[in-house]
Amino acid sequence: MPTYECPTCKKTHAVARREDAPFRPFCSERCKMVDLGRWLDGTYSISEPISPGDQNAPESQSSSEPE
Ligand SMILES: [Zn+2]
Fold this sequence. Notes:
The chain has one helix spanning 29-40; strands spanning 3-5, 12-14. It is of the alpha+beta class. Strand 1 (3-5) and strand 2 (12-14) form a beta hairpin. Zinc ion binds at residues 6, 8-9, 11, 26-28, 31.
C-alpha cells in the first residue's frame, strides 16, 4: 500500500488508491489549507478557522480602553 507523509502534520498516511487521498500530499483539506496559509504568509486569510484555539489572534487583544 503506498504511503505518503503529510507536510503539515508530518504523519504518514497509507492510501489504497489515489482517489482515497484527494488532498495529497496532504492528508486532509485542513492540512492543505494550513500549508497554503504558510505559503501565502498572510496575503490571504483562511476563511475557516482551523480549530478553536488553534490560531493566534493578535488583533483580538482587548484594547477597548480609551487612551
Ligand atoms: Zn496532515
